[in-house]
Design a protein that fits this description.
There is one protein chain. The protein is of the alpha+beta class. A five-stranded mixed beta sheet has the order 7-6-5-10-11. A hairpin with a 2-residue loop joins strand 2 and strand 3. Helix 1 packs across helix 12. The longest helix has 29 residues. The chain is globular. The protein starts with 5 loop residues before the first helix and ends with a strand.
Length: 384
């Protein structure tokens, strides 16, 4: 199985010449009847691809070279056992590239001299990373995650056990109790301590959390990924008060993380992180609206597509499912031709603009059509 990265996507998008097949379909995670349904869907899409290749004038042997590796997946039981939410199959002179992705993709078949990669942008967003700091009595864990899952992160310099550091048993014997008070500012619920030695315990907790924060600073100071906290509710406000990492998520996973499996921790953390990314997307759209009347914003294909080609696009907003079929005469006049429907030799200019924006260090954000500024199919915020 191929791993989707920005570098891999750009490599595939820039390949051209000969004939390539791009096939996308939603899949079901393994369960009763899931394999049969998905294999049937795959057969139907392969049939569509065969029709497209025939219309392109390819001989039977060339068609078989492109489609045989895809057809073989129908009988590959281990492949379907690992199904996720979406599947992308790209077949060309380089062989078959297979991407099982944790986001649904719409059924689509494209035949042309370039791979159609735009449906993978959602999966690429799922490869964005985050940090998860799990605080419990028995251990402290730093995990690194994305939309696909969690893995243990670096631990150098981070205290490993909250319970050991606080001599938890001794505090319990002194009948110390913790509970959460009424909501404070910003919805936080501050820790309330009752019992003997409460000031010393709180001070030691704060010192311990400062040690964790210092260790985190050395490990992830160059990162801009969100950090999600998981822990019992009386600990989280104390950690938040000493935190120095600038990308700490506002929402937290409350409860003892030791009682949650990594799968549930990932699901709950990704829901929080997905909301953080969605807020970033909304902020980008608001920024475009603020600058709408300025020369730095364009939704005109004749300006937008060449700007992306020449690396002038900072942020490209795309409506989900929108297409601009046509051609860019980049080598000669730089003229852009947009057709209402796909004609022979046309490419999706939005796919091209998105790839060239990413290749030049810009960002591409896909929004629902109703969220697009002024209802446009595509809007670019230009660097200059």
């Amino acid at each position: 199985m191929d791993t989707l990265t920005l570098e891999r996507l750009l490599e595939l998008a820039q390949a051209h010449g000969d004939t390539r097949v791009s096939l996308f379909m939603p899949t079901r995670r393994f369960g009763p009847g899931s394999q049969e349904e998905d294999r049937t869907r795959l057969k139907n899409l392969v049939r569509d691809a065969e029709e497209g290749l025939t219309a392109r004038g390819l001989r039977a042997a060339a068609i078989d070279d492109l489609l045989a590796p895809i057809r073989a997946l129908g009988d590959d039981r281990p492949f379907w056992l690992r199904s996720s939410d979406g599947l992308a199959l790209l077949s060309g002179p380089e062989g078959l590239r297979r991407f099982q992705v944790p986001v649904p993709v719409a059924e689509l078949v494209r035949v042309g001299d370039r791979y159609h990669v735009r449906p993978l942008f959602g999966a690429l967003a799922a490869s964005r990373t985050f940090w998860l700091l799990a605080l419990s009595q028995k251990r402290v864990r730093l995990l690194h995650g994305n939309g696909y899952g969690l893995e243990e992160g670096p631990a150098e310099g981070i205290p490993s056990s909250l319970g050991d550091a606080l001599r938890w048993d001794d505090y319990e014997k002194s009948s110390l109790q913790f509970h959460t008070g009424t909501s404070g500012s910003g919805g936080r619920r501050p820790a309330v301590f009752h019992g003997t030695g409460e000031t010393d315990v709180k001070d030691e907790l704060v010192r311990y959390f400062r040690g964790i924060d210092a260790g985190l600073h050395d490990l992830i100071k160059e990162s801009d990924a969100p950090l999600v906290l998981a822990g019992v509710d009386y600990l989280l406000p104390l950690y938040r008060d000493v935190n120095s990492y600038p990308h700490l998520a506002a929402e937290t996973i409350q409860g003892n993380p030791d009682g949650l499996g990594d799968a549930e921790l990932h699901e709950r953390a990704w829901a929080i992180v997905d909301g953080v990314f969605a807020d970033e997307h909304r902020s980008a759209a608001e920024r475009v609206v603020e600058l709408w009347a300025s020369p730095r914003v364009t939704s005109d294909p004749e300006a937008l597509v060449p700007a992306a080609h020449h690396g002038r696009v900072d942020t490209l907003l795309l409506a989900e499912g929108a297409r601009w079929w046509g051609a860019l005469n980049a080598a000669d006049t730089g003229d852009v031709i947009v057709n209402p429907h796909a004609a022979d030799g046309d490419e999706d200019l939005l796919d091209r603009a998105a790839v060239e924006t990413l290749a030049n260090g810009g960002r591409v954000i896909t929004l629902d059509a109703g969220e697009m500024p002024h209802g446009k199919d595509a809007v670019a915020l230009l660097r200059y």
